[in-house]
Protein 1
Amino acid sequence: MLLANIAVEFFKKGGPIMWPILVVAIVAIAVVTERAFWWLRESAKRDPETLEKVLAAMENGDFKAALTQSKGSEDPVTRMIFRGLSHVHGSLTGALKVAAGAEIKRAGRFLMLIDTCITVAPLLGLLGTVTGIMGSFQAVGGNELAVSAVSGGIGEALTATACGLGIAIFCLLPFNYFNERLAKLTFELETAATNVEVMVTRAKQEGFDTMTFRRESAAGLA
């Protein structure tokens, strides 16, 4: 109860601007927490062994085995390869791009919202600073110098600024981490897609029949 009372009093000292700052703080905490748990789950889904087997099968020209091994995988790179091989008879490049785009979109979800919180929170703190200083100057310009009013306005300014900066700092570190993970995943997807295209192109030059592969794969995966 004591900590709750301290928090409430601290909130009141920040003035009316603390309400939008509170909203930004709630959004920031919710989004950062959701993204943190999402990346933890995604890390658990990674399956480098299956990915290596799929790439090895394609390297040996056994695309049917690669398709079978990649089916049902929760690894984002392996999942992209499966979608690409499922459309090897048509636009392989297009299928890989669409699949990779879907994975990147999932990984980059809410990053724009975190970036917005990083930008908006200090601005709201700055706005609280301006309104607090304005209140102090109004008190100074009165007939009688109200020390409590002046100190209250300065306290409001400092409280709002501290909260805004605190939210921005809280968001900045995980935001950079999530961006780094997204960049790494994007590189892995692009590298795997390029490898698939190269191996399929080479197989076609060696007489790989995509239509036969399509019929056999449809029968095998049914």
Protein 2
Amino acid sequence: MNPEKMMKDIFEKTVTDEVIGRIDNLDSTKAPLWGSMNASQMLAHCSVTYELVYDNKHPKPKGVKKLLLKWFVKGIVTNEKPYKKGSPTAPEFKIVDKKEFGTEKQRLVNYLTKTQELGKAHFDGKESHSFGKLTATEWNNMFYKHLDHHLTQFGV
């Protein structure tokens, strides 16, 4: 892969700080450029990725669903190719209820900070909720690409 095209490394403090800066530039009244979530729902949606890592609030997929996720979804989620606008969303990630902007913003920033502080070595070979063991690069791509997609969705 061309080094200029490589995804930013969310485990680097400067990159995490840049993403947090983008989150800080978001306000609750900002309308999305595409999609149906408002800014508060988007922040809650982005936190689901971290809930799957840190919180035991989502049941793990089993059987055929787990195999399908590993075979068909893992590569899409962990590669460096950006998501397309309007890509399908897994049920666990759909946020339809009202969320409080400040609470969701702080929650996501806390998850980002924790992830950066734990660092790349912590995640290398770590089992994911849905995809089995991932490399640090796969974790990074999953984390960064999702955040970048949705922050871009809101023009920040």
Protein 3
Amino acid sequence: MSTTYDDDLDHRDERGDELTDDELAEWADEARDRRLGWLMLVGGLIGAVAAFTLVIERMKLLADPSYVPSCSFNPVLSCGSVMQTDQASVFGFSNPLIGLAAFPVVAAVGAALLGGARLSRWYWAGLQVGVVLGIAFVGWLVVQSIYVIGALCPYCMVVWAVMIPLAWHVTLRNAEAGVLGEGVARSGAVRFLRSWSLLGIVLVYLVVVAMITEAFWWYWSTLG
């Protein structure tokens, strides 16, 4: 499952000369950032739509307490139950407003990378702080939703699903590029995580699914 960057490259530039090691490394870095650009663009747009929908649903619920959100389907999948908890407004305002501000930035960075932009090291460091805080907040919300609130918000779960690969790949990119330190960039752990990225992300998803299955088995077992 290892990833290589020169399988489809003929190792020659426009003059037909052999590419140097530095040129090959630069090409590999650009290819990696383009792939990350697609992830950030698509993930950012999906996250922004989910956050925007949650904001609209929350506004409707505030205007009419009897309103049933479009993402409330049953006792477990119930946005309305989640929206009315303290956890839904941790900082004094609706949590989706954070996503509504952050995800368009993610999408814009993705578009810039696809356009060939080369972002400064400090900018990548800022993104790293953002994804770390984002995935930590998502992790807290996952635990709160499953084990404290006892209900799941489908649109929130879309945000969870987006944040996991975003946090993984931004962190991995920064580790490889030396943003997290040259020692980290040279470590075998980084190469291992790159080779097994897909499996690692799938395992995280499976852990969340297992948590949901176990916590709400009392309901799932009544279906069918």
Protein 4
Amino acid sequence: MPLQSPVTKCLSDLETRICALFPRSVSVAATDPTQPRPAAFPQEAAHLPQMREARRHEFLAGRAALHRAIAGLGWAPQPIPIRADRAPDLPVGICASLSHSRTLCVAVADRLETTVGLGLDLEPATPLDRGLWPTVCTRAERGWLAAQPEAERGVLAKQIFCAKEAAYKCQYALTGVLLDFDAFEITFADGKRFFATIRQPVASFTVGDRIHGRMDRVAGHIVTATRIPA
């Protein structure tokens, strides 16, 4: 059996950690945006000339991760172009989510018969700029932050941001509606779980509805995962 390269082994370990945030039906794939990527499908490559070089690397790494995650469900490889709203144009019957930083890209996918909403976000585990706290955090969330050890508040604010991004992606798959940060309020149940409570009605969601999430710290990143079962 051939030995894995250090990069491949690292990504494999990351996938295992992120898989633990979802049920077994969800397929997970991670890629490294700094590494060379296979050639894109022509329908995907058509978007590349309009992108800056860094964005091009992220896009190709993202598509490679999406292809692998969807292949893990038994789907044949196929192009995933960009929709008018900039979201991936996924194959019929698939629900997916994608997130990336400069050094890590992760995609998750599941069949719509099992999952109707997926949300994944990853952010470097660094403090959130304090000037953004009033924009990202509700009054209750800022009160919670104030009760935490001062040295941890910046990263915990980033954790709130990351949880809201995952919840936003999860609901967007169902509603197609753009929401602001104050549309959700995050509460943490323990070190690994959180709830995103809806604060304004949107499509089939009513005030007080909750999107359940899980999180972890992986490879210097905060990773948040949300899912709405079918």
